[in-house]
Amino acid sequence: MRYRTLGGSGLRVPELILGAMTFGEQGGVGAPLPECRRMLDLDAEAGGNMIDTAVNYRGGASEEFLGELLRGRRESFVLGTKYSVSRNPADPNAAGNHRKNLRASLETSLRRLRTDHVDVYWVHMWDRDTPIEETMRALDDAVQAGKVLYVGISDAPAWVVARANTLAQWHGWSPFIGLQVPYSLLQRDVERELLPMAEALGIGVTAWSPLGGGVLSGKYTRPDGTAARGRLSADSLSERDHAVARVVQEVADGLGTTPSQVAIAWVMSRSRAVHPIVGARDVDQLRDNLAAADLVLPPEAVTRLEEATGFTLGFPGDFIAQNSPWVFGSALVAPDAAPR
Q: Catalytic site residue 150?
């Protein structure tokens, strides 16, 4: 496993991040503690050192499992968890990004994780009703208290993230060093605003669902036509889903690898800022996913995969690209020559 610094920080994290959303059996589709131990050990043996969880994953079992599994080796891992999701639907202040929920959620996570600090504390989703100034100041207070080392944000508009980091710069608060977003061949929306923003501002990107909710794992393109367990059935997928999954399978067959590895390797190839989050329900799945770190897709494979998605930037990206030669004439600078 190769390492990169996460965003503009000095924190060393691997190319692939272990997702712990499956740690715990609540809901009937997670993994029991012994299997989670085997997955964590496998990830560590492969060079992985960052784990992603949240206060609400598996009703809290994910954090509780990690608290047990990390005993005696906590400092060898970059541990990240999230808050925002309700801890109690009957309590209006047990959710959101305000100071009160942040404090209560953080204390809950620290207790479950059996640690005195979180390495990266993520805002799980933008809260329209909480001023971003309040969130950034409350996060910085947690950093100043030593309970959080770095902060990040998940599932938010680009303008919110940019404004938040501008406020942090003005006030000397801790900025977001990470952005967590869904990113796969089936969902490329982040290429319009979020990914360019992250690259321009020096924010690392951790990409969740790089397999498109399992659609790109190969379970819907197997010769026997059977699909592994999951939230979706083959009949519930769109024609586009099936078409992209078939191309991923064909590319994998041509390269002698698996569809999961192709899909994850494509996400990794898009930008050095991107770190896919790989989750699994058992060791075999995780071993297959981790092998994507060693797969380099040939250019013709990348082109074929991207053409299958039918993705366009839309306005203003496509408009600017199409009209720049007319607007700027000889003053136009080639993209590969422009400073970044």
A: no
